[in-house]
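Hmm, how's this folded?
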Amino acid sequence: MNRAKIASSLCVVVKLGQRIADHPGLWMAILLGAGLKTVILLTNSITFDADEAILALMARHILQGDWPLFFYGQSYMGALDAYLIAVAFLVGGQTVLMARLVQVALYLGVLVTTYMLTDRFSRNRTASTIAALLMAIPPVLFSLYTTSTLGDYVEILLINNLLFWIGWDILSGRKQSMSWWLLAGILAGLGWWSMALVVVSVVPLLTIGLWHFRKDMPWGRVGVLALGFVVGALPWIIGTLQRGAGATISDLSGAWFSVSGVDGAQGIGFRLLSLTLFNIPALFGLRPSWSVDWIVLPVGIIIAMLYLFVLWQAAQRVLVRGENVEVSSRLMLLSLLLGWLSLLLLFIFSPFGGDPTGRYLLPLYPLLAILVGDWLCRVRRSMGRTSRRWSKIIPIASLVVCLGYNLWGNVRSMLENPPGLTKQFDPISQIPHDHDQELIAFLDFIDADRGYSNTWVTFRFAFLTQERIIFSPRLPYKADMSYTYGDDRYPPYSQVVDEAEKVVYVTSNHPELDEEIGRRLGNLGVIFQENRIGPYTVFYDLSRCISPDDLGPFGKVTGRAIHSE
């Protein structure tokens, strides 16, 4: 029996070794990608902000018996990421690191599936390796959002890749079983609940599928596909029924997203400008998502021109008819380009296009990596007919320049810490961690665990203190002191603070607000003390309990007060 077990184990090791030997480029990419993530995590280069803290808090509440369906405070972006983090918390404890390891695991899944898609598309291991390497050492935007969570972004990247994989095989006839149609539907529904960015795969595959089966529509399989979608989207359906279709559609359409009051044709022009000047440069790595500081601009422009040329060449190839083998490479290429087109149109014609960070374009990067890997191999084959030497040098040099440029963008961001890698575009919201423990110690010293602050402070410290210190996010954080009640994402915190007999006020990076709070407290005859701790200002020992409503608005107020319901 022991010999049989040893022999079986040896067989597994041999098979694993064979797989590694068959795909050395993939394993090299996995090691590089995991290595870069490890360095980012070990150097504490990413600030733990409120968005990430909310998901971690949702995961904690899930373990306590809650069942959230959407990101707190809104009716879109499903809670899938929070449930995955909850599982990680069960395994490794409720820490920031465990939440980020979930993102890293999902990211590695995206890397592997991008390799698989490229291999299916180009039928070339070199092209697959190039695509995987571009995923392993990506632009800083991609590194940030696949390490620190802001929702279901990495889940959507993985779901899109899986849908392309299954969809291509269904259209080619490789996968005819009903179970594959069901799985595709479930993934599409799950993606729809998670985030509308699933359109990157769903719209192209549905469009091509309708054309492909136009003469003989397999209605039975289509019914199974629809059933799977309903199953996958069930949390979204339940949430919509609970909150009302109006709320879900309003949030999903981005009606809450303010774009400087610009609407109509002018709004479209504004979003086109945002796409050209901010989002595409962030996607290509010309700048970090939180800054307009260009990264080695001359080299970045050359790389951006290369990416645009690859996209243009891909569009040219779609127009050239070729022989159909299984699902033709032309149809696969068309699906990748339609993915680009679908997301760009969604960006331009929806209010979300006002976001300057580039995060909404994240699903386009794996598709770009596939196209670049395939194109470089085509260049290599084409040049090999005339010059074998240059056919090797030019593609390799192009890849090395792209990877080196991406790597420098990541290293540069890690070295410039603060802010490091941050999701905050506005510097006033960039709050380093250097004084967090000092603030917690001070609040413990003065025996204060309830108070009012802004959204970036509230949720961060709620998680860091195991919800021992609770703030109500009823103070503004923007430079103009405007405030939206949408910042009050978890009303139970405000309810707890409103019932407290002793409160403090904590602000961050806002001297003008500090001065105004001090003046208004004085006008109300409230005696208080003030202490500055790094970026934080604490107003404490108030002679009587005062709420932000008593102080009055500091600037423009939008939205509807949730805490008063």
In short: Residues 198 and 477 are 32 Å apart (CA to CA). Confidence is low (pLDDT under 50) at residues 323-327. DSSP finds 23 helices and seven strands in the chain.
